[in-house]
Design goal:
By secondary structure, this protein is α/β, with parallel strands linked by helices. It contains 13 helices and 16 strands. Strands 3, 4, 5, 6, 7 and 8 form a six-stranded mixed sheet that branches. The chain has a six-stranded parallel sheet with strand order 11-10-9-12-13-14, with helices on both faces. The protein has a two-stranded antiparallel ribbon with strand order 1-2. The N and C termini lie far apart (about 45 Å).
């Protein structure tokens, strides 16, 4: 007989939050009241199995107020690395969906970038403006430490260098720490370089030449990565346009680079050759796609397509070349990954330059197979996971080897 629990104030989803092809759907509520443990158990594991996650860790510490979820998607290539996001989620279920979606994305990003890392992510539930405390993030660091290196964390939306320093007080499995503590500091130069060479690779495929001289590039956003990117583009002779919801940031960048400032409400309809999203996600959607007057979309923002499969197909039909975001913006991951081997910015920048060849290969594969660029990039990632994963069938005897943090491990 199934155990029942009273849930008078809990709204559960009818579905596991995904369709059969793995897309996140809005959770449909069911009536409040008594639910069976078996139903909850099945929904949870269906959700985890949908994208083939290895592990989900729920972290709770009443004294510090910590409520967090760590998602480890795949460790075929190495330990799962991904940032810790702090956000005011509408429900715990929304937080779980987000960590599962984001951790899977990190697996694909690391695989395509050629890194020996898996995909992971963490979310801390709370208001990043008012709820952060040292005790909370040190408690979180203890949970990361307890995973013994299966998950390595970093900065993400809603967290900063300060929180990474607090986490580091409890675990060595954290990257993106300040330079003075042996870390890499600001990753934006490496992210921007990867984006810049990715734009050139896109131009090579679309126009037959990777020269950006005279090309009209609309950059949406004026943050650190966007600013460095705008300078690189202007240096090559591109006609740069910038836009940001904060006018002072856009105006300041325009003065530095000679760019033209565009009203945020008009960025999608601007006549340009290349549209470079460098701010919010999900901005390529049913409303914005009909407005686009570009031939290439290539920028550093995460999760640019609101519906990955459908909107990638729509862009293909319209003849707009889309550079998959997790490929072109992999410079940030490359940067923090370099901390694991002893940070060298010159090495990180050299690896980021490799995004040119990786992205060009993906774009040409999409043309050859007549598939979307997202399908092509997923294929490349999955093929690397399969090929490296197949080596696990080879027995390795016990040995000693140097670990990622300089210590010697026994196996």
């Amino acid at each position: 007989m199934a155990t029942t629990t009273s849930a008078p104030s809990t709204t559960l989803p009818k579905t596991n939050g995904h369709s059969s092809n793995g897309k996140v759907l809005d959770a449909a509520p069911v009536a409040k009241g008594t639910v069976t443990y078996e139903d909850q158990h099945q929904q949870l594991f269906d959700l985890i199995a949908d994208r083939d996650h290895e592990q989900v860790v729920v972290c709770h510490d009443k004294r510090s107020g910590l409520r967090a979820i760590i998602g480890i998607h795949n460790t075929t290539l190495g330990p799962a690395l991904g940032g810790t996001r702090m956000w005011t989620y509408a429900s715990d279920f929304d937080a779980l969906k987000d960590v599962l979606r984001l951790s899977r994305g990190m697996t694909y990003k690391a695989a395509v970038a050629g890194l020996n890392l898996g995909g992971g992510k963490a979310v801390v539930i709370g208001d990043p403006r008012t709820d952060k405390t040292e005790a909370m993030f040190r408690a979180f660091g203890r949970y990361v430490e307890g995973l013994g290196g299966r998950y390595i964390t970093a900065e993400d939306v809603g967290t900063s260098l300060q929180e990474m320093v607090w986490i580091r007080s409890e675990t060595k499995y954290v990257t993106g720490i300040p330079v003075e503590l042996g870390g890499s500091g600001d990753p934006s130069p490496v992210t921007a370089l990867g984006t810049y060479v990715g734009i050139k690779a896109s131009a090579a495929v679309k126009y037959g030449s990777d020269s950006l001289a005279g090309k009209r590039v609309m950059i949406q956003g004026a943050g650190h990565v966007a600013s460095t990117l705008a300078k690189d583009l202007a240096r090559e002779g591109a006609k740069v346009m910038v836009s940001d919801i904060y006018a002072d940031k856009a105006n300041s960048l325009a003065r530095e680079t000679g760019a033209t400032v565009i009203d945020p409400d008009k960025v999608y309809a601007v006549e340009c050759d290349i549209f470079a999203p460098a701010a919010l996600g999900a901005i390529i959607n049913d409303e914005t796609i009909p407005q686009l007057k570009c031939s290439i979309i290539a920028g550093p923002a995460n999760n640019q397509l609101a519906d990955e499969e459908r909107h990638a197909e729509e862009l293909k039909k319209r003849g707009i070349l889309f550079a998959p975001d997790y490929v072109i913006n992999a410079g940030g991951l490359i940067n923090v990954a370099n901390e694991l081997e002893g940070y060298s910015q010159s090495r990180a920048l050299k690896q980021a330059e490799g995004i040119y060849d990786v992205l060009k290969k993906i774009l040409l594969l999409a043309q050859e197979k007549n598939i979307t660029t997202v399908e092509a990039s997923n294929h490349v990632a999955e093929e690397r996971l399969r090929s490296i994963g197949s080596t696990k069938r080879i027995y390795a005897s016990r040995s000693e080897f140097s670990g990622r943090f300089g210590e010697y491990w026994k196996r």
